[in-house]
Every structure is written in structure tokens, then in C-alpha cells.
């Protein structure tokens, strides 16, 4: 008899409406600490969990936060293909590589 295999995917857990109501809605408040939303342990697992959890988690979050801060404040950016298809293998991969058009903000006149 062939051995049974169990396959688990973080991205499917993250889109489980039992864990995250309206999972595709952009709602950063769902991660607020002390609010109405209490995250169930091991439900948000982008960096894994337990003793082998990603050692670069906090470093990666600071780098991403800094990058997004500059991208949002200094540039205007548009998706080149707004309705680009995303495939899951098992992580989400935009089929065309998610090209964006980045333009500097026009400086405001004092
Ligand atoms: C967005 C960025 C990142 C994501 C999503 C990510 C995600 C992950 C995940 C899912 C694991 C496996 C955890 C587990 O098995 O439970 C892992 C392990 C690991 N990550 Fe990251 N990671 C990121 C950035 C980084 C950075 C910047 C570093 C180093 C500077 C790093 C170093 C490591 C190492 C060394 C492990 C192996 C830990 C071990 O096996 O004990 N990662 N990461």
C-alpha cells in the first residue's frame, strides 16, 4: 500500500475564513494586538512556527517596512497588469512577475 502523504500550505491556512474572516479583504487591523481580533496560535505562519521558526523574521519585517515606507512616500506606483493572474505553487506567484511602473512624486509647491 502506498504511503499516505499529508501536504500543508501556509497560504491556504492564511485564506481560511474560519481563522481570518473575509480573508482576501485588506484589513491590517486584524493583526492589532489587544483588539477584538485574537490570532489563534500558529494561524499566521508566514515565518513558520516552533523551534525552527525563521531566524530572520524581525530583520525581514524591518527591511520590508523600510522599503514600503520609501516606496509609498517617495513614489507613485501602478500595476502594469492590474488583473494579473496569480498561481499557487504552493506560494502565490503572479504569472507575469507583477511588473509595476514606479514614478517619483511630483514635488508639492510650497
Ligand atoms: C519575508 C522574508 C522571509 C520569510 C517569509 C521567511 C520564511 C521562513 C520560513 C517559513 C522558514 C521555515 C520555518 C519553519 O520551518 O518553521 C524560515 C527559516 C529560516 N529563515 Fe527565513 N524567511 C524570511 C527572511 C529571512 C531572512 C532575512 C533571514 C536571514 C537574515 C532568514 C533566515 C532563516 C533561517 C536561518 C531559517 C532556518 C531556521 C531553522 O531551521 O532553524 N529568513 N524562513
Automatic annotation (TrEMBL):
One of its GO terms (molecular function) is iron ion binding. GO terms for biological process: sterol metabolic process. It is a single-pass membrane protein. GO terms for cellular component: membrane. The keyword Oxidoreductase applies. Its cofactor is heme. Gene3D superfamilies: Cytochrome P450. It comes from the Eukaryota. Keywords: Heme, Iron, Membrane, Metal-binding, Monooxygenase, Oxidoreductase, Transmembrane, Transmembrane helix. Heme binds at residue 54. It is found in: Membrane. Its main location: membrane. InterPro entries: Cyt_P450, Cyt_P450_CS, Cyt_P450_E_grp-I, Cyt_P450_sf. Belongs to the cytochrome P450 family. This is Beta-amyrin 28-oxidase-like. It comes from Coffea canephora (Robusta coffee).
Amino acid at each position: 500500500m502506498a504511503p499516505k502523504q499529508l501536504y500543508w500550505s501556509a497560504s491556504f491556512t492564511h485564506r481560511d475564513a474560519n481563522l481570518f474572516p473575509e480573508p482576501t479583504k485588506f484589513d491590517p487591523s486584524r493583526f492589532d494586538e489587544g483588539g477584538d481580533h485574537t490570532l489563534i496560535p500558529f494561524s499566521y505562519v508566514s515565518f513558520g512556527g516552533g523551534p525552527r521558526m525563521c531566524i530572520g523574521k524581525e530583520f525581514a519585517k524591518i527591511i520590508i517596512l523600510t522599503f514600503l515606507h520609501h516606496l509609498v512616500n517617495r513614489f507613485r506606483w501602478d500595476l502594469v497588469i492590474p488583473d494579473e493572474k496569480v498561481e499557487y505553487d504552493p506560494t502565490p506567484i503572479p504569472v507575469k512577475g507583477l511588473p509595476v511602473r514606479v514614478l517619483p512624486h511630483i514635488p508639492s509647491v510650497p
